[in-house]
Amino acid sequence: MNQDMVRKQKKYRRTWISFAVILFLLLLVFFSAINTGSLSVSFGQLLRGLFVEYDENVAAVYDLRFPRILISMLAGAAIAVSGVLFQAVLKNPLADPGIIGISSGAGFAAVCVSTFFPTLYFFTPFAAFFGGVAAFFLVYCLSWKQGLSPLRIILTGVAVDALFTGLSSIFSTMTGGQRTGVASIVEAHITQKTWSDVGTLFPYVLAGLFLAILFVGECNLLSLEDKTARGLGINVNRTRIVISLTAVLLASVSTAVAGAVSFLGLIVPHIGRLLVGSDHKVLIPFSTLAGAFTFLLADTIGRTIAAPYEVSAAVIMSVVGGPFFILLLRRSKKYGN
Amino acid sequence: METNAMEVKNLSFSYGSNQILSDISLTIPRGKITTIMGANGCGKSTLFSLMTKNLTPGKGKILLEEKSIKKYSLSEFARKVSIVHQHNSAAEDITIERLVSYGRTPYQKMLGGKSEEDERLIEQALQVTGLLDLRDREIGRLSGGQRQRVWIAMALAQNTELLFLDEPTTYLDIRYQLEILELVKKLNKEFDITIVMVLHDINQTIYFSDKIIGLQGGHVAIEGAPDQVITEESIQKLYGVHLMVTRVNGSPVVAIQDYRLPPREK
Question: Which of A7, A220, A232 lies at the smallest CB-CB distance from B106?
């Protein structure tokens, strides 16, 4: 057996271990999230309460904590996969739906709906999607100058992000900052989420993840030079647009429900690449799990760190993600030009 | 069977008001190695892009099996013509075998697995390019010469009658340049693949080509077998520099002894 095969097998083993570990961690943080707060239920009690007979504590946990936990997991998975897709489409390992303004564009559209047409709340995910598309379009066009340089996308994205975040803040302040819908999007608070919010988020995230899985082959081909991918019969521009829309969908709906979160879509895929490699067939499923884990962990930490006050998951992500982002920028020379 | 694999008819192309190619016609003979040469800015890259469907002609047409290439869909075209571009990049951590398997893309259905035919052609491409032993190696761990062979293997897995190569020897030292050109020759002889390439080195062009197309100022200046078209006059015409053309073993060889440069342009 030669050295290459040894390396290949090592990588294979590392991939399996990574999946096993992330699944275990996800379950672990899931159960600790259930038990974080004034009520606590044991594992056995939980199963009995859910499936066998009524239990007051379990019912309370089910109504109050489950929606929040599921929303964290769904949003985390969506944002992480959205990050992977943006990185593939823009050929930019620094692309993150939060940093390049997609989330805040979607958030702004969602805030508009909540402010002006509060009765149309069910329409929020659609509005968020169009807001996200508008932000992406802006970033793409404004940073186009004989090609897309990674750093120019980030700079333009930061500006677009600032613009939409500012606009959302204005609306939030105008409405007294009390309207829960607006505040929850602007400040990424998921404290008062209910099962109906889970119902809003679930189908879109599922559809987005399904599309992402469908495009794994195309994502891999986009890592080649455009001309080379074209020579293999791929319509590169059309593929870019379709994958971008999927990424925008995932980022937008999660913003509409859980608020704008930055750095998650950057950190998770990066760690994913280190552990399981850059093949999207593996990276996308891994990022789904790792994204769910990371968001839920951030939310659970946010609930405990300053109890009884709550720090939002978005704030936790920024505090951890900021330094991480700087580290990536410093470590790689190729982002500089 | 048609003797020409590809035909260019009255082709013109311009970027804005800048005319790059004016009314050129040429043929690519089937089963031969044809090399396009010329000075910088003569239009050879544009011609290459046009013939590989990366640009669309302003006027005139390019025929593949008597049908304009405009009428081929991208994947239909990819089943007839494979292209190795000058600049290439890939994820550093994928294996050679994986990258070569991308060459089967034009034959695959969405979500479909690899067929036996796919497996066979990937295997063959690896074997012909001498990459069988390296199949599990990651792209990031390859030398320049090995990388270039991987791109050729990927094109080979496309199983096409025509193979286009844009300056396949750039960035390589002479040993690997010859290794690549020998491989190209082998593909032509053993698999009967029609080759079209752009080369910079005049002597390599003469030695490895059956036909030379020399462009100058957007026109075809020379077209034919190297023996017949390479002269001191034609080199002067193509590159604006006087070089010595001698013969070694009966074939023309360009030497730089007694070269004469024209006065520098302002």
Answer: A232
Q: What residues in chain A have their Cβ under 8 A from chain B's Cβ atoms?
A: 2, 4-5, 7-8, 11, 214, 217, 220-221, 223-225, 227-228, 230-235, 273, 277-279
E strand segments, chain B? 4-15, 18-29, 33-38, 59-64, 67-68, 81-84, 162-166, 194-198, 211-216, 219-224, 242-248, 251-260
Contact B9, B62 (CB under 8 A): yes
Q: Where in chain B do CATH 3.40.50.300 domains reside?
A: 1-80+160-225
Domain B1-80+160-225 bears CATH identifier 3.40.50.300: yes
Count of structural domains within chain A:
1
- Within 8 A of A213 by CB-CB distance, chain B residues are none
- Whether B106 has its CB under 8 Å from any CB of chain A: the answer is yes
DSSP A168: H
Query: What ipTM was estimated for this complex?
Result: 0.91
Closest chain B residue by Cα to residue A11: B93
Q: Is residue A19 part of a domain?
A: no
What is the CATH classification number for the domain harbouring A81?
1.10.3470.10
Whole-model pTM: value is 0.90
Note down pLDDT in tens along chain A; length 337 residues.
Answer: 688 889 889 999 999 999 999 999 999 999 888 887 777 777 777 778 778 878 777 888 888 888 989 999 999 999 999 999 999 998 888 888 988 999 999 989 988 887 788 777 778 888 899 999 999 999 988 888 777 777 788 888 889 999 998 888 887 777 765 555 666 666 666 677 788 888 888 999 999 999 999 999 999 999 999 999 999 999 998 999 899 999 999 999 998 888 888 899 999 999 999 899 999 999 999 999 999 999 999 999 988 887 777 788 888 888 888 888 888 777 765 544 4
Are the C-beta atoms of A313 and A190 separated by less than 8 Å?
A: yes
